[in-house]
Design brief:
Radius of gyration: 19 Å
CATH topology: Rossmann fold
Strand content: 5-15%
Pfam family, one: Sulfotransfer_5
Number of helices: 12
InterPro entries: P-loop_NTPase
CATH architecture: 3-Layer(aba) Sandwich
Protein name: Sulfotransferase family protein
Helix content: 25-40%
Strand order of the largest sheet: 5-4-1-3-2-6
Organism: Patiria miniata
Length: about 300
């Protein structure tokens, strides 16, 4: 475990830049909501993943080349959420374009952070922006995979899936071949070697148990003043009006509620106990077992809570 270090001098520049990499269902949206309340912050939310999952312009002509399931789903999204204006049109975004946007000056902002899925950039490492610190958020596989499977249940009617579907029935853009953990570990190793030797790892349950201790340690590490007032916030999705987030994601959330619990939150809740293996459906256990070595390697290097 990496211990929180003694007080560091603030960065020589006024601006702190942070990339948060994670796997799905690891409380990254509630962390993003929390960090949004740091003064003078700009937030980028899953811009790389949106390109990884849905590249290109979704015109009527292009929809004709999509699978019947994808067409059905996008039409349902448009019907349900056609009036939503929050978010940005990411349909023409590119990996290089997101990199350049992140690297902009962002004048007047003190804290720039981007939250994204590690698997989204593993084949496009050159698109990772320069000048950022890196934070990796991990969560125990016994908690991630049941949540991941539940999160797709509302999509069953749109994706020709059986009610008892397996996660690996999903296309790889929704369930990557390394199950998320291989990708986040390999990205961590790359970042340490090439970009940020002091890359930070935090565990989701550690964050829930002691949000003040974990976040104050993170802020100390990246050179950002910590204020306890960010640990409580108002319920609701108003915060995303300030995010650079794909509009499609906001629309999908209206249809299936991917982010509902996180956006309805007002603080970090204490973690639930780790479930027994026997409580998981058997189809999830191979994913858990394949992911545990990567999780354990990262967990052993995680940041501990600040005791100051």
């Amino acid at each position: 475990m990496k211990m929180a270090t003694s007080e560091k001098a603030p960065s020589s520049e006024n601006q702190v830049r942070l990339l948060i990499w994670t796997v799905p269902r690891s409380l990254s949206t509630v962390l993003s909501k929390c960090l949004s309340f740091v003064e003078n912050t700009k937030v980028f939310f899953e811009m790389y993943e949106s390109i990884f999952i849905a590249p290109g312009v979704k015109t009527e002509d292009e929809m004709a080349n999509m699978s019947e399931e994808e067409q059905k789903f996008l039409l349902a999204v448009r019907e349900k959420a056609h009036g939503i204006s929050a978010g940005v049109d990411a349909s023409q975004c590119t990996f290089q374009g997101v990199k350049e946007q992140l690297e902009e000056a962002h004048t007047g902002k003190k804290f720039i952070f981007s939250k994204d899925m590690a698997y989204a950039v593993m084949d496009r490492l050159e698109s990772i922006p320069k000048g950022f610190r890196h934070l990796f958020l991990i969560r125990h596989p016994l908690k991630v995979f049941p949540s991941w499977k539940r999160s797709f249940l509302p999509l069953v009617p749109y994706m020709s899936l059986a009610d008892d579907y397996r996660l690996d029935d999903l296309p790889q853009k929704y369930f990557p071949k390394g199950f998320g953990y291989k990708e986040v570990y390999e990205l961590f190793e790359h970042v340490k070697k090439e970009l940020d030797p002091e890359a930070i790892i935090i565990d989701a349950d550690d964050l829930l148990k002691d949000p003040k201790g974990i976040l104050s340690a993170v802020f100390n590490d990246i050179g950002l003043p910590f204020d306890e007032k960010i640990l409580n916030w108002e319920a609701g999705d108003a915060v995303i009006e300030q995010w650079i987030i794909p509009r499609l994601y906001v629309q999908v959330d209206q249809l299936v509620g991917f982010y509902k619990n996180a956006l309805d939150s007002t603080c970090f809740l204490k973690p639930k106990p780790l479930p027994d293996r026997s409580s998981l459906s058997p189809d999830l256990l191979p994913f858990v077992d394949a992911s545990m070595p990567y999780y354990q390697k990262m967990y052993s290097q995680r940041l501990s809570a600040s005791k100051s």
